[in-house]
Amino acid sequence: MKTFFSALAVLFTVSTFSFSQLNEGSIHLAGSSDFSFLSVNQKVEFDGEDTDNATKTSELKLKPSIGYFVVDNFALGLSIDYARSKEDKDISTNYLIGPYAIYYFGNSNVRPFLRGDFGYGQVIQNYDGEKQKAKAFGYDLGGGVAVFLGNHVSLDFGIAYFNSTTTYDELQLNYYSEGSEVKLITDGFGVTGGISVYL
User: Fold this and answer.
1) Backbone phi, then psi, for 151, in 5-degree steps?
2) Rg for the chain (alpha carbons), in Å?
3) Are 163 and 190 in contact (CB under 8 A)?
4) What is the number of structural domains in the chain?
5) CB 102, CB 75: distance < 8 Å
6) Residue range 77-95, pLDDT digits in tens
7) Is the pLDDT of residue 10 over 50?
8) Residue 170 burial by CB count (10 A; 0-12/13-18/19+): exposed, middle or buried?
9) Is the pLDDT of residue 13 over 50?
10) Less CB within 10 Å around the terminal CB: N or C of the chain?
11) Above pLDDT 70, what percent of the chain?
């Protein structure tokens, strides 16, 4: 029995130190999904006037990314952000691509982290049966914890604040003048979950 507990102690010590570093020069591969069912704020900018609208929107975001640890525990990389949201019968699909940065704290198998993403891309929106395309810019700022399952894999959980600006050059909605530029600004909070691989 004493030998058994001694072996457990050795295994615990080895496992603790096996997660000690995310080394400079390592590759960071991640895939995450963000779920937002909270209140979302929307602001429309048109002809120099702002219109605020608090609404409830369900949104699913998928975000694969690849990065490089420039120093221990700090990686920079590129992410692709796919988001699909629905409000009543209106469906909006976003495609954004851009840089991200992530920093891990500590050396244990459960590590807090902070992450920021910025992206540029396009929005495709179906509104009253009509399809529209628009330019988009967005960013996510958040944090959470990474639970390491071994030297190369972690499960990631957290929360994030998101903000996006969609610019319509020719909005086809009836209550705006055709050909006018209209900006739709959306922000809110979401719960994130994903998996990361370290090579």
Assistant:
1) -70, -20
2) 21
3) no
4) 1
5) yes
6) 999 988 777 666 677 788 8
7) no
8) middle
9) no
10) N
11) 66
Q: Which single residue is written with the structure tokens 């998101």? A: 162
Give 115-130 pLDDT, tens digit per residue. Answer: 999 999 988 877 666 7
Q: How buried is 78 (Cβ within 10 angstroms: 0-12 exposed, 13-18 middle, 19+ buried)?
A: middle
Per residue, what are the HEC states of the chain? Answer: CHHHHHHHHHHHHHHHHHCCCCCCCCEEEEEEEEEECCEEEEEEEECCEEEEEEEECEEEEEEEEEEEEEECCEEEEEEEEEEEEEECCEEEEEEEEEEEEEEECCCCCEEEEEEEEEEEEEEEEEECCEEEEEEEEEEEEEEEEEEECCCCEEEEEEEEEEEEEEEECCCCCCCCCCCCCEEEEEEEEEEEEEEEEEC
Q: List the CATH number of the domain containing 157.
A: 2.40.160.20
